[in-house]
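Lecture 7, part B: from sequences to assemblies.

Below are the input chains for today's worked example.
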Amino acid sequence: MAVKQKQIYCRPALCIGCRICANACALTHEGEANPRLGRINIRQNLFERYEYQELCRHCEDPPCLDACMVGCIEKDEETGIVTNDDRCVGCWMCVMVCPYGSMKRNLVRQMAVKCDQCKELDGPVCVEACPTGALVFEDREDVTEKPFFTGPSVT
Amino acid sequence: MEYLIIGNSAAAVGAIESIRRIDQTGNLTIVSNEKEHVYSRPLIAHYLAGDVTEDRMPYRPEDFYQKHRVKTLLGKTVTDLDTLAEQVCLEDGTIIKYDRLLLSTGSKVNVPPIAGCGDFEGVGIFQTYEDTRQIIARLQKGKRAVVIGAGLIGLRAAYGLQEAGAEVTLVELLPRIASRVLDQKGSEMVRKQLEEGGIKVITNCAVQEITGTAEEGVKGIILKNGEKIDCSVVIIATGVAPNTTLAENTLIEVNMGIVVNPYFQTSFSNIFAAGDVAETFDIPRATGMVNANWPNAYEQGRYAGLCMAGEMQRYPGSVGMNSVSFYDVPLISMGLFDPEAEGIEGAEVKVRISEKNNIYQKLVFKDNRLKGAVLIGDISYAGAINDLIREQSLVGIIKDSILEEKYQLYDYLRKKREADVEGIAIEWPETHSSTRRYEKSFNEKSWTERELDKRAWR
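Predicted structure of the full complex, as structure tokens:
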């Protein structure tokens, strides 16, 4: 039962790797202007030739949900947003299984944090903050990435 | 359809949730010998340490069973399984019929034949919520504790006891600690951490006897070398084995655990097994193995539930993995991390050590594939490494760069995933060809518009 869900996408052609998205995220969720604490991390370096996107895909069958031994990671059935809450004890099981590296560690609180698409705000702050418009928040039909999905094939 | 699930932990919850995704009408019954609402087994170490309170122990909310319409028979033991009549018998004589049965009975603790073991109050195993409550109650009588067995459960118990304020001694029979989850160097580092933290570690030594009195319980232990250690709590953590008791008198094939096919069926097509009791396909070793841990158990339960409800999904296999942290130093081990100990030839090992920062990272390659990893101190990119092991993808290009330039790792993974999807154009084909990058940048509509806007504004 694939939920139609808006996702944050990065258009690499427009990204300049400024990490303002990560900074905005950290400021909103952690109250600190430190891009290392951001739950999104998109780096692009045109000269050293790498780019990578650490952002939560809100998988259909999230491996982090499987791995969480506390049971504090949940996938909302209606919106499809995967969230975790403050019951986290910092066992890093979710960090171990997330193939996208989008489970982040907050070492001060010893908790795993992840993107919740700013569900209590109007829209993701990273998308608002992006100066080049590289980040978009939209519902895409043709996703080029293979999603993590092992559930029933009947929709 | 009558579904019956024996066991009430990760695999059972996974199965319940995925059965209800498909089959809303079938009757679901769950039988467990524990009285508790479903709780998290690995969390008992945190409960013992006192950093998790009782109200945070449940793994799923209070209304979990009502919401999924599950009939619960908690605190009841299944004594007999009749595979031909398709029924199980409880200890009070109740007979339950089933159409699909899931065995998720987990594992049982191997208690070694030590004199005095089980005679006194204060000697116990460390597996369930009830065990933990007893240990906490017992800690009121004295703050000295001994943990026999330094596997992962033993280490967690020792760490939890120390956090709870006890003075802990760890006794291990083998020459090094955590030999099932860490290699030589890794276990030395963990041992050093624990000893610096104040836990006394004794290796290469067996326990001769546990002493005590009937009234006051356990008083101490005597080691093989004659040393006496006074204590009021003894935890036995000398290893676990799959709890295959139910399957033993039947025609179900049992090797290490209950043997299952990729659809979690045992020798009988309507009996399924998942979790710590099941022997599944181990991806890095390419053999059948029992990979007992929480993430695997839940995932296996989820797949087994889908198969039980008729949606046959092939399980790709499991990877043995563990993640714990001692004194805020994280530790992750995955797959085949110690090729020498397992006698595997032709393995290539890449290591990064920084003693000062307490960092040790080791990757094991074989046949141009990543087979296992040990990560201590620095666990960033553990997810990507786990994905490489799970997918067994060829790592030729990035073998040297996994430990150093990790950015390339995610880039590689992303491209690999894109290439997996057929018939869809890869949006960003090569990062190395900068000319194409710029062409694309300038040809993209929004970029051009933006440029035009800029010029108009000027």
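Note for the exam: The longest strand of chain A covers residues 41-45. Keep this in mind when comparing with the next example.
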